[in-house]
Amino acid sequence: MMRYLRIFQIPAFARYFFGDTIVRLVEQCVQVALLWFLATRGHSPANLGWYVFWNTAPVIIGGPLTVKLFRYWSIRRSMVVDLVSRGLGYGMLTVVIY
């Protein structure tokens, strides 16, 4: 089995892979928590629908902007800015819809 996982012997890739995996798991947990919050306290199914609709904005807008940041900043700094801005966006969206 180890012969198939040689790529994890490269420290930079292993750090990226495990870091990205943890970030994605946490991001999905937050998404489920926000959906649960709006489903139980959002007062209408329309609020939940609007949240899901507007939830795509950070992906559609944030993706290309992050790529542009890569040209000016390091990848790590760009990813931190992307994650923080998405978190703030999701938080503000939840407050506005609630």
TrEMBL record:
InterPro entries according to UniProt: MFS_trans_sf (IPR036259)
Entry's transmembrane regions: 21-39, 51-70
Protein name: MFS transporter
Keywords annotated in UniProt: Membrane, Transmembrane, Transmembrane helix
Record organism: Sulfobacillus thermosulfidooxidans (strain DSM 9293 / VKM B-1269 / AT-1)
